[in-house]
Write a structure and sequence with these properties.
It is built from 8 helices and 15 strands. 37% of the residues lie in helices and 28% in strands.
Length: 265
């Protein structure tokens, strides 16, 4: 069942990505509003999510759907689809080609399928629970780095957490010989950690639609992922730490010492 839903999510992410690309190519006509500090939303976000919700409702009418732009739509099957139609909206509206479509599926407290699709690069990262992780159909695996000085670590930043969180993480990472990376799309950075491009990723708070797919893909690629209560993540979000097995403990220590106490947003 997880494989069937993964196949559906992959096809849907590509369809949604095509619509997103249409908007991306005509940015001068895009209507953009601001929800909060560094938190933008465009008509592209809303319309791509509407497309995703419509396709899920047709294929799986009993399933719940949680999306960034339109909230939770309850279901009766026990399955919940979680989507961010355009992760990296600030990049998107600025013409920076670093954004993605994210779709995950949760069942009984477990993420069973996840897709992160980058339409600009035509890269699709995906995983079904227990079946490995793939990029454009080829298996991927997390980095084999054994040291923070060997590779770059993605660092997330958001307007919901203490301003000091990201500053502290960068300072701690650099002081331990590490290098930080940020492209303003948490979804893509998680995909990069899963595929070994980054040796890890940390962020003090991510919403479910931004992180669930990436955490599954990283885990299925052999990376280590900070344990989560997935049902709680659906409603409150999560502190996210993922990394190559050889550096995960170091990243967890940095997160623990750098982030303010986690407050459910």
């Amino acid at each position: 069942m997880s494989q069937e839903r993964l196949d559906f999510a992959e096809t849907l992410s590509r369809k949604a990505g095509e619509l997103g690309l249409e908007y991306f190519r005509k940015l001068d006509t895009l209507t953009v509003t601001q929800k909060g500090h560094q938190d933008l939303v465009s008509e592209a976000d809303r319309n791509v999510e509407t497309l995703i919700r419509g396709e899920i409702a047709k294929a799986y009418p009993q399933d719940a759907i949680l999306g960034e732009e339109h909230g939770m739509e309850e279901g009766t099957s026990g399955y919940t689809w979680v989507t961010d139609p355009i992760d990296g909206t600030a990049n998107f509206v600025a013409g920076i080609p670093q954004w993605c479509v994210i779709i995950a599926c949760v069942y009984q407290g477990q993420v069973i399928a996840g897709v992160i699709h980058d339409p600009v690069s035509n890269e699709t990262f995906k995983a079904a629970a227990g079946h490995g992780a793939f990029l454009n159909g080829k298996p991927i695996k997390a980095s084999d780095s054994q040291s923070l000085s060997n590779g770059s670590v993605g660092v997330g930043f958001n307007g919901r957490s203490a301003v000091t969180d990201a500053v502290n993480v960068v300072g701690a990472l650099v002081s331990k010989g590490g290098v930080f990376f940020r492209n303003a799309s948490g979804g893509l950075m998680l995909a990069y950690a899963a595929s070994g491009r980054l040796i890890g990723y940390v962020e003090s708070h991510m919403n479910a639609w931004d992180c669930l797919a990436g955490m599954l893909i990283t885990s299925e690629a052999g990376g280590k992922v900070m344990e989560q209560d997935i049902d709680r993540v659906l409603t409150h979000g999560a502190r996210v730490v993922v990394g190559a097995p050889g550096v995960f403990n170091d990243l967890q220590e940095i997160a623990d010492s750098s982030f303010a106490p986690f407050e459910a947003a």
